[in-house]
Amino acid sequence: MLPASCSHRLVTELQGALAACQKKEEALQQSIARCRVLLQPWEVPSPPSPEPARSTETKPAHEPTPKELKELELLNQALEKALQVRKGICQVQSSKSASSGKTAPSLVTAQAGPGARPRTSNPKACVPAKPPPTSQRDSGRLKKPARASSHRGKAPGNALTHARQPENSMPIEGPSLCPLPSQGQVPGLPTSTPVSVLREAGATGPSPGPEEGKIQPGLRSEAFTLKEKGTQLQLPLFYKKIASRNSSLWAQVQHYQSSADTAVAAAKAHFMERMKVTFDLPGPAISLAEIQEEVNRLDQACHLLTQHLEEALDVNGEAATASLSWEQEYHRLVTLEGLQAAVERHLLRLRELRDAEEQWLGPRPVESSLWGSALCLGGKGSSGSTNHIVYSSVEELQTMTALKLRVTMLKQQIHLEKVLMEELLPLVRSENPAGPAQVALYRAIHSQLCEAGERFSILVRDEPSV
Amino acid sequence: MAQSVVVQVGQCGNQIGRCFWDLALREHAAINKKGIYDDSLKNFFRNVDTRRNGDGVDISKGKIRSLKARAVLIDMEEGVVNEILQGPLKDIFDSKQLITNVSGSGNNWSVGYKVFGSQYRDQIVEKLRQTAEHCDCLQCFFIIHSMGGGTGSGLGTFILNVLEDEFPEVYRFVTSVFPSGEDDVITSPYNSVLAMKELNEHADCVLPIENESLFDIVSRINQMVTSGKPGTTVKPESLITLNEGGIKKKLQEKPFDTMNNIVGNLLLNLTSSARFEGSLNMDLNEITMNLVPFPQLHYLVSSLTPLYTLADVNVPPRRLDQMFSDAFSKDHQLIQADPKHSLYLACALLVRGNVQISDLRRNIERLKSALHFVSWNQEGWKTSLCSVPPVGHSHSLLALANNTCIKPTFIELKKRFTRLYKKKAHLHHYLQVDGMEESCFTEAVSSLSSLIESYNELDVTKGLPIHDPLRLNIVI
Amino acid sequence: MSVVTVQLGQCGNQIGYEVFDTICRDLHNSQGFCCKRENEVYQASCKEHFFNEERSGVPVARALLIDMEPKVISQTLLKAARSGRWKYGQHSHFCQKQGSGNNWAYGYSVHGPKHEESIMNLIQKEVEKYDSLRGFSTIMSMAGGTGSGLGAFLTQNLRDAYPNSFIINQIIWPYGTGEVIVQNYNSILTLSHLYRSSDALLVHENDVVHKICAKLMNIKQISFRDVNQVIAHQLGSVFQPTYSSEGSCQYRRNPLGDLMASLVPHPEFKMLGLRNIPQMSENSLSYTTFAWTGLLKHLRQMLISNAKMEEGIDWQVRPPLLGLPALEKVPHNKESHFNTSIANLVILRGKDVHSADLGGFKDPALYTSWLQPSDAFSEWRTHRAFNKYEKSAALVSNSQFLLKPLDTVIGKAWNMFASKAYVHQYTKFGIEEEDFLDSFTVLEQVVASYCNL
Amino acid sequence: MGRLGRRPREDLGPGALPTAISSLSRALRGGLGPETFRKAKFDLPEAVAELWSLLFSLLWPIHQEGAVAPRDPPDALEGQIRFVKWVLCCYGYGRRHFYQLSEDGSYGSYELLLAFSWLLVYLSLPERFLCLNCVHQGDDAWICLCKDLASYPVSLALGGKGRVDIRYVQWLLGKLRFQWRSLYASQQEQCTLLNKIHLYTRGCHPDPSVGHLSVPELELLRFPESSKQLLQQLESENSCLEAFLEWKHMELVYWQWMDTVMDANPIGIPNAGKQDVFLPEILQYCSPKYITGEMDRVQKNLEALRQRLQETVNQQRAAWHTKVSRCSRRLPRLSELSTAMMKEIQETVGCELAALEQGCEVKSWSHRLQRLVFREAGEPSNSGTHQMTKVIQVLRREEASLEKTFRRLQEECQQELAILARGLEGVIWILPPYQRW
């Protein structure tokens, strides 16, 4: 049996780590489940409820501003570009669908727009996606689109489906640039069926089954997979609009962050200063959180410096030192001196941190570690800009995630190793290795500390067993 | 699937070989009804398209065209080989597989080994090579010879050496016919002892056979057949009774063929589990692995049951159990030995036919109390279940025993050798052959002695209380 | 999600076939005793675990067949294809012409390195077919040469190549006598090597299963097929889908990982035994009804008295009273009937499964002193009945179940080793006496550790 | 793109403060009006409860971000107050008076206003809040590692005396190892699936720099009904962002006002003398023991490094001097040439070292949310994107260095235990055979 305090600390640490993994795993499982659902055949879903989204009801309606229209135009340009890209990617597919589309209109369906109706489909199967006039209030925001959508049956013609330009010419007014299914509907109220969001919208087919959750057997054949038809999907306009607004807002937020307003900064500094002076904030200059973070940073730095030192010394190998040019010699010297200076700086900083820490705590030792890990929130001023990270193959993505996990694991492992060392080594040091309990402890500790708990050593008596 | 090559040397070897090939063909004919060249056939036979030039091209799949035995026939006289070539088996051999001479070895081991050995070495290697090249995975050489004569004994063991040099990876199983007490060849003790040394050193596994035992078995079969108990008749189709012209009345007339058939059957059953499917396969390499605990102790006493099938099949389970009991009786061993009352080092049961693991286990449980096993191998059983029964039987059993009961044979051999050697009788016939020295004799006999000594050492442990050696002592 | 089954050697291939066949028959079994919808989800989950869907509609087993001689593999492939229900992948087998001859060393040191690349490529190709790889389940006997030697070699390679995968080895423990003479050598070499590279060894004892065939299944002439079918049934009862958690109707996504996390985290305790209840011939099945209370009472007694089957349970065995001072070291040869567990997993399938009370398995007295039942006991359930049993329970146990057989095998091998018998067969292929000694020490330690629970 | 709210500052009229406060409040999704702030300025108790719960609602999610097993937020005000105090304490907010506020929330609105404003600066509260509540439209990739497996202590009910056997520790560690593996497999699976989705929807995204759809976007299409939520969230985020921009625009007013607030100082007392009223109690949650240990370790390492550098620098200096004197004898004009060269070298080294100091360069952007974008090799990619290869490089380096650290620790233990092992008499110690895994 381990001593109580040791037991408590070790078990707490390990249980904590386990719970963290568990949580992460659950999150992953959820996200996997989501992906899997998407990769399964898309069956024709229920028609949308005629009720508009509540949230949008509360939004004040307003006319589209000229700026909005301009944004849309920009958006459309972007779409055009996207199309160019796509052209390259799925030439085969689009040409295939273009040729087959006419003869065998299969996948495409009812237009979800008000009263939109597939022109050649079986009327029984055709279910109007949404009663046209429901949402006067909601459509406020997009009045024009609403109007535009009254071009019945026009929707399938998509400005961007180059392969199948519809016979209808596009209305000139704004949003009709993207005559998507849900024109005339409020943002936040997607009513299009997956089938109808397929790009190849010119042809017709049976529309969604009438009841939620029930998929008519006859319509089963409509199921398609992303693999087959994924490239023909198209995001609804209202979404695109909101999203583009969102990204432009974020860009502005970014901008604010990068360009510091000096006046505000000064005012803030002034405030902090006054807090400190007037209100005599006696707390230490550095918070515990910061100390922890700084210590970690110093640890990291020490590591890097060591590495750099080794690289510097190892450039040509020790043996080749004699043959170094004077430039190389000098380079090395300057490097070493630089490193030296850096180390001094770090040591100084560490001293400061120690002082700060003492201020904080006094001599009182406290148990349990909350701060072991919770510290990313200390990283101030992070921003939510939607940067992109580009990968070019699934292997690359997998390697990255695997490495990431590995690094995290190693950190956790190192942390645990340190804790185990702190707690366990004193136990074997202190007592005489006599009793079997002690030997068992010794063996277990060896396995834990030297073999990462994966393997175990064996102790055999010098004489055979009787 | 792996292949085997039969090397039959000398008169005896070729006679047995002839029976073996005949039986092998019949067995496959009975099982392979479609005439397709399959993996099991491939084991002993090549399928050759003879319409092509000369040697023909091997066909690996499809219809059987023309089967060629994977065999090399060697004799320093022509008689038997010529007989074979003129007999019904002539199609499966061709001249490229033969090495013959007309002079014979004069019952002299050293003539076979030293004279013909060096004279024919290249030719032998060449023939073996050719045969081996037709195999995509050569696993085993079966050498069939006798110990008492000159060619089989001398050249046979010489070939054993050659095989070890040239094909170190390929197993060497030797079927050796040991001379009986009243052998008509006077020098047979010399030949046998000299050959024994070679077997000791170069064989992976030796299946000793004694003509006397075979003869006794044949006599019993005869008795059985002629006794004509009401309702009991030997089925004419059974393998033992079957040979080229095989019908039962010939039993008395041609005992040798029947005897050789038994040996042929031994080889067939030995390889059956490797050739045919079953729920517990046994490859040839498993035989040595399981039955040879120490390199030199590789002499396996074999028994074959049932030897004949009776027409009335009334009590199958009892007959099944009888088959197992018989396999351990003295009367069914192919060499004069009594395994039941000696010490077993290991034992293998190769079962064919509709026998299941539970039958096997029941019989092992039943029999094992009556048997003595060496202390460190109390459960020294190796088993196999081949689902294809031999022709004419519903099931069969080949028992292979590594048992100290072989020791008397060796002692007897040594005794007869010593009797001759003390008088230096006939020694000069040997010593005049190039490369033969007296030391050859002394070394051979001491090799035999040490073999006997090994068996002695094991024998003394028989019946002693078993003490388990001390185990490792783990601290915690 | 996906686990690759690797069937090794004659035994592994024969059992592997039965496992897939059993699973497939269970899939198509109309007597699921649950509603249609539930059955569909179960089937989907099962298919996802064990099969790749092929265009032809015939599911393809996620399995690789490996043997060093061709007979068994060609038979197995043929049998599966003939069943019409399922088949093996077209290129998912590897065989050679010549077996390992019951020689562990030959499988491990000759066949292993020689075919390493081909086999690992084959595995790689199979793995690439899946969206994710959870682990490997190898089926192998430890008596022979290919299953045991090549199996040990391959397991090590799998561990190196897929360090993040779970590896479970289904070990077929040979009959105490009568299969292979060198089986004890092969066994200790196999076990000790697997102890280094595998995560769990799920042991199936031939002797035990044979008895089940005789006593419970009422089979007169027991064939290997009968034995294998029982093993397959047991395996199916563990690895067929179960709900991921109490009250959930989602099926478990990572049964192998979950099983390991609940049973074998400690590196010295990796031996798992398997018991199931009820087990009977199909004829008697239709005349019998079961109650969960009865089944679980029996199963629990089977656990604590180390009974191999429902018949002949020793009801006298009781768990020790808690609170008694832990004995310093109970020698295993001492008559101590009570079987101490490290951890147990009970899997319940069938009707009214949620009413089944597993309280009896949560008694701290059942477990080693250093684990609480909350850590040591897990349960999996599903409404869907398995293999025509209206109700059935399986128990996977990391306990002293295997202590005795293991000790016996070590003892016999040690006896043989003391006389150096057969050792030359191994040194011929590079397995030296030290290797034997290493294996002995590892396993003696395992025995000691299991004794000292 | 047009920029909202970039109006000249003169707009800020007398009504500016309430507008500023209300936009701040909207940006923080809090329902607080300017009135509350005004009350707080005068330390009126009516504002207390509102402010506590505002602080709580802001700090709780930040705190939960790195936490395991989301704990239920305390319902009672008292619990919330304790929590807020604790968090502030950890951030180093040092005003004693704040901690002395009673936990029934009956007074202290002025204190709370100060604390709130302090957090605004210290934590960049609005920005952080926006990031935290960021709506995910893309398949997000965090390269940031800090939150990945951050563990929080789990409250334990250890049975009996609370002592455990070392084998239980081994058991738990083994379990953790298995969990890591499960995580690995799940991650790999997720990557495969994501990639499939990206591959199958190439060309569908309106933004050409993205190209393909993400999971949330696809869900929007697949489940129009349930995906309304996403749109609502986006809309609400948009209004938050708008409010934030508005706030940013008028922030100055707020700080100017705060100046007056501080002038007012209705409480009067600076800090009461009693230092330890609250702190120790709060600090139970922190682990200075761990930090101290860490500091010791880092110090040890740094000092060792300094020692080593000292020696090598001396050597190097000597070596260089000899070389220079030798060279200058042969090439008298060297010194002129070399001054320029030396300068160049100094600069290069300076850059190198600077780069080193920033070592975790990736980290600066790694904490941010990144949209995962698939682009086959060879396809052009926009600027402003980060390449996975670069991330992989950095991670590899980190992995290697961590592995080294880990091995070093293990060796340390090995040595110590080996010494102890010599004390075991009559026992042969057999180490596990070497294996790669």
Automatic annotation (TrEMBL), chain A:
Residues 93-109 have a biased composition (Polar residues). Residues 54-68 have a biased composition (Basic and acidic residues). Residues 142-154 have a biased composition (Basic residues). Residues 42-68, 93-172 are annotated as: Disordered. Pfam families: DUF4693. Coiled coil: none annotated. PANTHER family: TUBULIN EPSILON AND DELTA COMPLEX PROTEIN 2 (PTHR14870:SF1). This is Tubulin epsilon and delta complex 2.
UniProtKB/TrEMBL annotation, chain B:
Gene3D superfamilies: Helix hairpin bin (1.10.287.600), Tubulin/FtsZ, GTPase domain (3.40.50.1440). GO terms for biological process: microtubule-based process. Residues 55-278 form the Tubulin/FtsZ GTPase domain. It is found in: Cytoplasm, Cytoskeleton. Keywords: Cytoplasm, Cytoskeleton, GTP-binding, Microtubule, Nucleotide-binding. The keyword Metal-binding does not apply. It comes from the Eukaryota. Its main location: cytoplasm. The keyword Cytoplasm applies. InterPro entries: Epsilon_tubulin, Tub_FtsZ_C, Tubulin, Tubulin/FtsZ_2-layer-sand-dom, Tubulin/FtsZ_GTPase_sf, Tubulin_C, Tubulin_CS, Tubulin_FtsZ_GTPase. One of its GO terms (molecular function) is GTP binding. Residues 280-415 form the Tubulin/FtsZ 2-layer sandwich domain. GO terms for cellular component: microtubule. PROSITE patterns: TUBULIN (PS00227). SMART domains: Tubulin (SM00864), Tubulin_C (SM00865). Belongs to the tubulin family. PANTHER family: TUBULIN. This is Tubulin epsilon 1. It comes from Vombatus ursinus (Common wombat).
From TrEMBL, chain C:
CDD domains: delta_zeta_tubulin-like (cd02189). Residues 47-247 form the Tubulin/FtsZ GTPase domain. GO terms for biological process: cell projection organization; microtubule-based process; positive regulation of smoothened signaling pathway. It holds the Pfam family Tubulin. Its main location: other. One of its GO terms (molecular function) is GTP binding. Acts as a positive regulator of hedgehog signaling and regulates ciliary function. Found in a complex with TEDC1, TEDC2, TUBE1 and TUBD1. Belongs to the tubulin family. This is Tubulin delta chain. It comes from Vombatus ursinus. The lineage of its organism: Eukaryota, Metazoa, Chordata, Craniata, Vertebrata.
TrEMBL record, chain D:
It holds the Pfam family TEDC1. InterPro entries: TEDC1, TEDC1_dom. Residues 92-263 form the Tubulin epsilon and delta complex protein domain. This is Tubulin epsilon and delta complex protein 1 domain-containing protein. It comes from Vombatus ursinus (Common wombat).
